[in-house]
Amino acid sequence: MYDCMLDEAKLWLDEPPHRKRKLEPPPPLPIVDYSLPTTFSDSDEEEIDPVEREKYRKQVVESGGFDVDFFPVYGSLDQSGSTPSTVMLSKVGLHCYNFDKGTNLQFTSVQKANEEFASFTMYYITVEAMDPFSGSPVTFQTCVWDAATKSNESSRFITKVCRIKGTEKETSRWDHGAVDEFYKDDISWLEDDALTGSDKLQYYEVKESDLRDNEWLQLYAEVVMFSKWETDLSAYLPVKMKKVVVRTREDVETSKKLRSKNATFYMSFTACGGLECRGIIRRTTDGRPQHMSLQVNCWIDN
Questions:
Q1: Low-confidence residues of the chain, pLDDT below 50?
Q2: Rounded to whole angstroms, what are the CA distances from 222 to 92, 265, 266?
Q3: Which fold has domain 2-36+80-300?
C-alpha cells in the first residue's frame, strides 16, 4: 500500500508542498492528549514471525487499510483514533457521499482511524453516522487524503473512499488530469465587479433561503477555519453567514449552481466569539465515484 501511495504522490507533486501559514490561533481551548500508545517498539520487530507479518499484510489489503488489529514498526499504517483531524475529515467524507447520493447522513463519532504517511497523510476512518430519516445508525468508511497544497491554498482534502461499510468497492486513484482546466489556476478572493462584469452569469449570490436549506455550507465554513488552525473549533460554531457567492462554468440554472460538481465558493461569516472570517472553497471532481477535492483558503479580518 505504501508503494502505491508513494507513486500517487509523485504523480501529484511537481513542486515542494507549501507550508501552511500559521497565524495567531484563537483563544486557547482545553488541551486534550490525542496520542495513542505505540503497539510495537523497535525491538519487537525481530520477534514478529512470518505468520504475524502475513496477517498484517492480509488485513491491510483485504480491508483497504480500515480494519487492522495491530501496527508493527515495519508497517506504513499508524493508529490515530478520534482527533480534530479525523473528525473533520469524517465530515468531509460524509459530505461527499451525501452530495453524490442525495442522502443526509449525519456524523456521530469516529469509531477508529488509521493514518498512512508518505509526502502527505492518508486517513482511513470508520465513522458512526446517523440516518435522520430512519433514525438508524450507519457504519460509514471514508479515505481522505490531506494532500500537498498548490494554487495559493492553505489546505487540500481529497476523498478517495466514501461508502457505507461493505457496500462499494474502492475506486482508483485521484486523476488530476481529468479535472477541468478552468479550476486549476490559483485561488484568490472575489473581484469587486464579479457580479456585474462580463462573467457575471458564472456567479450566483446565495439567497438566505438557500443558506438555510443547505446545511453543508456551515461545514464549509468549519473547513475554512480548520485549514488555518487544525484544532477543535466547536467553541466557534455555528457561524453566522454574511455572504456566500458561488462561481461555476456549468450550464445550470442560477439556483442550482450550489449543486455544481465543480464550483468555487466565496464565503464571509462571523464565528462565535466575534471572529470575522473570509474563506474560499473550490470543489472539484475527476468524474469518478467517491471522489471530491476541496481546496481551501482562509483570511481573518480582525
A1: 2-3, 5-6, 11-24, 28-41, 44
A2: 10, 13, 14
A3: Nuclear Transport Factor 2; Chain: A, (3.10.450)
Whose cell is 473549533? That residue is 233
State how far the Cα of 97 lies from the Cα of 167, in Å rounded to an integer.
12
Reported pTM: 0.83
Type of residue found at 188: S
Buried/exposed code over 261-283 (b: 16+ C-beta within 10 A; e: otherwise): ebbbbbbbbbbeeebebbbbbbb
Q: How far apart are CA 283 and CA 261, in angstroms?
A: 7
How many Cα atoms are found within 13 Å in the side-chain-facing hemisphere of 283? 24
Helix (H) or strand (E) holding 50: helix 50-63
Query: Domain ranges in the chain?
Result: 2-36+80-300
Alpha-carbon gap, residue 37 to 96, rounded angstroms: 32
Q: Which of 201, 245, 224 is nearest to 294 (CA)?
A: 224
Model pLDDT for residues 83-103, shown as the tens digit of each residue: 999 999 999 999 999 999 999
Q: Burial-class residue 129 by CB neighbours within 10 Å (0-12, 13-18, 19+).
A: buried
Helices and strands (H and E) in the chain: how many: 5, 10
Report CA-CA distances (Å) from 34 to 81, 92, 102, 114. 8, 20, 34, 13
